[in-house]
Amino acid sequence: ARGASPLNAWGRTRPLHNGHCNGCGIALVPGTNSGYNATPDGHDYVCDGCRRQRERRRSARLRGEMIAAYGGQCVCCGESSPEFLTIDHIHGDGARDRVAKKANGGWCFYSRLKSLGWPKNDYRLLCMNCNWSRGRWGICPHTGQLAEALIGAA
Which of 2, 18, 85, 88 has an alpha carbon within 20 to 30 A of 99's alpha carbon? Predict the structure, then answer.
């Protein structure tokens, strides 16, 4: 008899743990859709599917904060569609940074940037095309120098 939770992560009142997911209500069967304990007091049990949905929403919110914090558009070409935007390591040290921090990207990386106050000296927002081109060729195609560099290299 644990009583009822005021509101779970989905804004619904449900028993704290009655053998069912607090998100969708399916029965939690050990070994198949394991319950997930997410709150500090240990009473928010959800199935794996609901946990993944919650993590996707959290990641999307954090990514949105990151995009806003870095100006909302590619600093090179002005692309502003969030699907195309990514963080760039200004000094070209992304691989070294990932190894040192033991993090590849995604919400862990965004959380670290947020905890640092969204640092602008080492990171900037680029679209994937500009980021890839700078990483591969050292030049962005929007500068007009890439074609010259490629023709000169041939």
Answer: 85
